[in-house]
Amino acid sequence: MLLRQIEYFQSVVRNNNFTLAAEEHHISQSAISQQIKALEDELGVELLVRKNRRFELTEAGKHFYKKSLVLTADLEQLCRETARIDRKEAAQLRLGVLSTYSGDEFNRAIAAFSEKYPDVELSVVSGNHEDLYDGLRFGRIDLALNDQRRAFSDTYQNLVLMETACYVEMASHNPLSKLDSVSVDALKNTPCILVASPEQQEEEQRFYRDIIGFKGEFLFAQTLQAARVMVVSNRGVMPVEGANSDSFFGATLKRVPLTRGNIPLRRTYCAFWKKENSGHLVEEFAEILKSMYSSH
């Protein structure tokens, strides 16, 4: 009964209207008012201050509303997990990572998680920022390692992992590869190579043109390997993710810090997941991933 009263209360606050909340639950307005009053009696606090047909949340009501959303989201997740166990389905965790991310933290986190939870089935997809964002929005992935391009949203858990310099990869025989850093202005006549699906090419180009500042031509590849072939062939430079480690490139590629003027460009990487999808496995993987960055 208490849970139902909480749901009624959330509905009233969400709709900012008793009548709409009552219609949502197919009960009368007087009935939903009685249930809110019963909830207040149960808690021993006033949640709403009623003013004719309007109301305002008390400070206690604001606190209870926020915390109750977390409570009901956790309960829904618990119910889903319990039903899955009853159906004897294998536990799954679906992860997303940037196609151009070359740090080893993500792979080390997968190894540590798999050792701790050998029965959990892991799947990994890669994509650009928009691919991963859409994957979270539409429930195709549970957690994404992504760069921060938008203001943080209350819909998601936003766990900051690392802030690092931006880099571009270029062919070792490119004269610019001899520089300690390279500015976007110096690359104005050099094509920018991006890894992006056909659907996301326009969005990626807009970001690197309008936000990062690339002014030249844009070329696209659908995989990191294909993009690196273009870089080795000196067809352009490619912005990359992760820490500055170029030892595995051999003599063919060079990674150079990217600046705007004399100011180094920085990127923030986060683990993102929907709050409504927050559960033990998602949070455990996020903590393991965080520890991989903290150990540097």
H/E element order: HHHEEHEHEHEEEEEHEHEEEEH
Please outline the major beta sheet: 5 strands, mixed
Q: Tell me, briefly, the overall form.
A: elongated
Termini distance? Answer: 50 Å
* Estimated radius of gyration: 25 Å
The number of strands is 14
| Spatial ordering of strands, largest sheet | 4-3-5-14-6
Summing up helix and strand content along with how strands pair, one would put the structural category as alpha/beta
Unreliable stretches, pLDDT < 50, 5 or more residues? none
Percent strand equals 25-35%
Percentage of helical residues? 40-55%
Determine the mean pLDDT: 88
Task: Summarize this structure as a short list of keywords or feature phrases.
296 residues, alpha/beta, five-stranded mixed β-sheet
Description:
With 296 residues, the chain is of the alpha/beta class. Helix content is 41%, strand content 25%. The protein is built from 9 helices and 14 strands. The strands form 4 sheets. A 5-stranded mixed β-sheet has the order 4-3-5-14-6, with helices on both faces. Strands 7, 8, 11, 12 and 13 form a 5-stranded mixed β-sheet that branches. Helix 1 (2-15) packs across helix 4 (59-86) and helix 2 crosses helix 3 (29-43). The model has no long low-confidence stretch (mean pLDDT 88).
